[in-house]
Amino acid sequence: MLNPGFVTSKTLAQWQDTPVFLPQFQFYEQHQVVIKTYSSERILPLVAEFDIQQDAVIRLLMSVRQLPQKILRNKQPQAVNRFGLNSFTLLQKSASELCYGLRGQFWRADFGLENVPDTDAYMAPVAAGSAKLLLRYRVTEIKQGQHELRTETFIYCPDRATKLKMTAYWLAIRAGSGWIRKRTLMAVQSSI
Question: What's the pLDDT at 64?
């Protein structure tokens, strides 16, 4: 069955393991890979160090996403030149979890990113017209020498108009976004 990644209020009320940094959300996506290693402490540093520009497919997908920005370059001085984990705010780093936050109007050509210098700024209420995104990576042991690396994306929109814009954007980019996440996981898997 196709899962479009929309989260209803009813589903959210029954959600297991709601993220501390974003307990309310309307959009969700997850991907995972099994990594065979006895050194699980190496996994998350590889995620944090991964440069999406090193993967040709991800580079192509990101260049397609940034095409509108390049066309409107002169009109949008705040444009994002190299989007990646460096565009996010690190919210949590532990032996088993990395959490990154992002705030903005992701559907805009320039991503409409807000300045989020720290966790407190991320946790502040988001204004109508902007959205919050949480990117969570987790490592869990399946059995000795085998671990699951999971990536989850959560997005919250504070009002109906923002949710409608995010819905259209989500439908347009979700397949590409999922492909980027999967390729990131496979790159980490092959690096161990």
Answer: 64
